[in-house]
Amino acid sequence: MSASTLQLALFGHPVTHSRSPELHRRFAAQLGLDVDYRAIDCPAGGLAEALDRFAEAGGSGCNLTVPLKAEGLALAASASAAARSAGACNTLVRRNGGWWADTTDGAGLLADLDRLALDPAGRRLLLVGAGGAMAGVLDALLERGPARIGIVNRSAAPAEALAARVRQAGVPVEVFDFEGGLTAGGFELALQGTSLGHGGTAPALDRDWLTGDATAYDLNYGPAHAPFAHWCAMHGVPCHGGWGMLVEQAAEAFERFTGRRPDTADCYAER
After folding, report:
1. Beta strand pairing status for 59-64 and 91-95?
2. CA 128 to CA 238: how far, in whole Å?
């Protein structure tokens, strides 16, 4: 690694499964840039120390995954409006001796939904989960103007926090838990954002919450997507994994790091 190498990283726990390093290295090769992007395991509560070490070693930008997205925002000296609204970030860029926080998840999700002809505009959306993943994409979804949103989550407080943002945007919203069910139903597009897949399980959805021709999208990819994909297959719901979202949010982050936008077209051929 030379003195001119751009040092980037992914922090999270776990991170060994992540294909983000592969994507960023691919982007760097495509654009002829000297980039070192590595995955660094960092449990919750350890990000401040890890970032200090990274910056001292010349690190200039990083991505964050679970469980560090809210922690990263709290440590940032400044942040984009999108990150502040989400209460979480997935991208940190070194600026003037501090970290600037942003979130590229929403843009990445919308780019992939557009690729799949699943524009949220005018659709009835069911958001499964109310953690950092869903918080990070909510504003982007609201900008498209969905007809109605349902939020199902195991605990009420984070779901109600998301619902407040939905109401502020003027979109009808309903919050419910997995046991209580919902009163309206008829959702056309389900977006799965829990981390249950990493433990080999899927959320306990009721097929009746969705329309007969509903489609599902899992923000997870790879093995973490498999349990939800199985549930969808068992209930006749077409389902897409989050590989495309990973690709597109990575491209957005890479542009923040380097000022150069990579072409993502070839990334969909290899899963």
Report:
1. antiparallel
2. 16
CATH assignment of the domain containing 94:
3.40.50.10860
Q: Which residues lie across from 267 on neighbouring strands?
A: none
Give me the catalytic one of 19, 26, 69, 123. 69
Active-site residue, 70 included: no
Q: Are residues 148 and 68 in the same domain?
A: no
Dist. CA 54–CA 211, nearest whole Å: 48
Instruction: Decide: helix, strand or coil at residue 55.
Output: helix
Which of 71, 103, 135 corresponds to the end of one domain?
103
Distance CA(167)–CA(113), nearest Å, equals 23
Residue 116 makes CB contacts below 8 A (sequence gap 6+) with: 217, 240, 244
Predicted confidence (pLDDT) per residue in 230-265, tens digit: 999 999 999 999 999 999 999 999 999 999 999 999
Please state, in angstroms and rounded to a whole number, the distance separating the CA atoms of residues 92 and 111: 21
Q: Max alpha carbon distance in the chain (Å)?
A: 60
- Contact between residue 153 and residue 129 where contact means Cβ atoms under 8 Å apart: yes
The answer to whether 173 and 149 are in contact (CB under 8 A) is yes
Rounded-to-integer distance, Cα 220 and Cα 111, Å:
16
pTM: 0.92
CATH classification of the domain holding 197:
3.40.50.720
What is the Cα 174 distance to its own chain's centre?
22
Tens-place pLDDT, residues 116-143: 999 999 999 999 999 888 999 999 999 9
Question: For residue 44, how far is the Cα from the chain centroid?
Answer: 18
Alpha-carbon distance of 37 to 25, in angstroms, equals 7
Q: Are 91 and 61 in contact (CB under 8 A)?
A: yes
| Domain membership flag for residue 261 | no
Indicate if 124 and 203 belong to the same structural domain.
Answer: yes
